[in-house]
Design goal:
209 residues; mainly alpha; elongated
Length: 209
């Protein structure tokens, strides 16, 4: 078995490529999802009933469906509507949309527990809606939601494993390619699992700081 691990690690170039591809798509999708979630959370607490209800409905639907189903919709269904995207763009878009729904709901929950007196005091000092949100509300809800945001932060790493259906050269697709050349399926899977564990453990440790 040790010799087989040596054979598998001999494919370190393709392994490093798959691992780095997974890292960058997780980091990019996580950052963009959080940025979009800030604006979606504002819609979730909008004073306009129609805007609030429609946004909440979209968020609920995205949180209810499995990520793999959303990926199928983006990768297989959009081309029937003459919208053709690369495999990486499909995977990145699906991750951003899916995680934005989770992040936005977490920020909305943190906002709902914020004392209303602080918003009223901010308006009394002349803060407009956007400035009030940026200077007073957003910093506090980020602090309150920080520990919870670390939980779905694992989703980009785990859900990125499904990107192999788009034939993207990520960490999950690497064992399939490596198994054909090394004939060591068990060892290749163990190496991929270890790298996913490192990726998710690093994220969990960073979110607890």
């Amino acid at each position: 078995m040790i010799a087989n691990f040596g054979i598998v690690l001999g494919e370190w170039r393709s392994l490093a490529t798959g691992f780095l591809n997974t890292v960058w798509i997780c980091a990019l999708s996580g950052a963009l999802s959080l940025l979009l979630a800030v604006f979606v959370s504002m819609l979730l607490v909008s004073r306009r009933h129609g805007v609030r209800r429609s946004t909440q409905g979209v968020v609920d639907v995205l949180r209810a469906i499995p990520f793999l189903m959303l990926l199928f919709i983006v990768y297989y269904c959009l081309p029937t509507l003459h919208v053709r995207l690369s495999s990486w763009t499909c995977g990145l878009s699906a991750l951003i949309v899916y995680n934005t729904a989770y992040f936005a709901e977490i920020l909305r929950g943190a906002w709902s527990h914020l004392p209303h007196e602080q918003e009223e005091a901010g308006r009394a000092y002349g803060y407009t809606e956007l400035r009030l949100y940026r200077r007073i509300i957003l910093p506090q809800i980020f602090i309150a939601a920080g520990p919870v945001l670390g939980q779905p932060d694992d989703h980009p790493g785990k859900n990125s494993a499904f990107l192999m259906v788009t034939r993207s050269p990520d960490l999950t697709s690497w064992p399939t390619r490596c198994r054909r050349s090394t004939s060591c399926p068990f060892e290749t899977i163990l190496v991929a699992v270890a790298l996913y564990w490192i990726l998710c453990s690093t994220r969990r440790g960073r979110s607890s700081w």
